[in-house]
Amino acid sequence: MSLPDGSRRGRASRLWLVPAVLALLLLGGFAFFTGQSRGRPDLPPLPTDGVAVLTGGPQRVETGMRLLAEGKARWLIISGVSPVADLEDLARTAGLPPEALASRTTLGHAATSTRGNGKEIAHWAQSRQIRSLRVVTAAFHMPRALLELRRTLPGVLLIPHPVQTEGPRLALLAREYLKLIGAMFGLSALSPEKPPS
User: Where are the bilayer-spanning segments (predicted)?
Assistant: First the structure.
């Protein structure tokens, strides 16, 4: 039995609603995400047990080291550091004496992705019984960083400390937004990572 023409047309028009609603949700989510990409840290920063820096852009390492040097945390991890970088180089770039930071700073060399950062930071935080953690990364990267860290550190208070807040390019924001959606659906688990040492 065939459907009347009017029913077929009504059904076809309803089928177009699904992609239209999905597109509106994605665009609305992107607009919200773009607003978050200009987030700024709370000032003055409250002390936390630790500071975690996710490398990959300017201002991140310097900000984390300054927070440690100013007594805003007891411990610092810089996750995703190049295997050839050492604390002395990083401290010199930040304009700080490495001796004052050495005993309280860990350089994580294992992570090669945001998911890897989450695992590396969790391993470090659990070994120090950290209950509160200030997270330093670019503002546009913060939502995905917090998502991955919440998966690995469910009982730890995470306080965002965004840097690089001056409006990144639209193409970069779009790529990061798509990565965030992928991470929400667990697709970040598909990229292999070295285990933390």
Answer: none
Query: Beta-carbon neighbour count of residue 44 at 10 Å?
Result: 8
Residue 196's pLDDT is 43
**What span, in angstroms and rounded, lies between the C-alpha atoms of 93 and 140?**
23
At 5 the pLDDT is: 57
**Of 180, 186, 189, 182, nearest in space to 141 by CA:** 180
Please state, for a pLDDT cut of 90, what percent of the chain lies above it: 54
CA 39 to chain centre: 13
Closest among 55, 177, 146, 14 to 64, alpha carbons compared: 55
**Residue 104: is its pLDDT beyond 70?**
yes
pLDDT interval class at 170 (50, 70, 90):
confident
Q: What is the DSSP track for 152-174? A: H-TTSEEEEEEE--S---HHHHH
Contacts (Cβ under 8 Å, ≥6 apart) of 86 = 107
Whether the CB-CB separation of 145 and 54 falls below 8 Å is answered with yes
Token pair for 119: 């695992």
* Distance between CA atoms of residues 27 and 42, nearest Å: 28
Q: How many CB atoms lie within 10 A of CB 30?
A: 17
In whole angstroms, what is the distance from residue 185 CA to residue 154 CA? 18
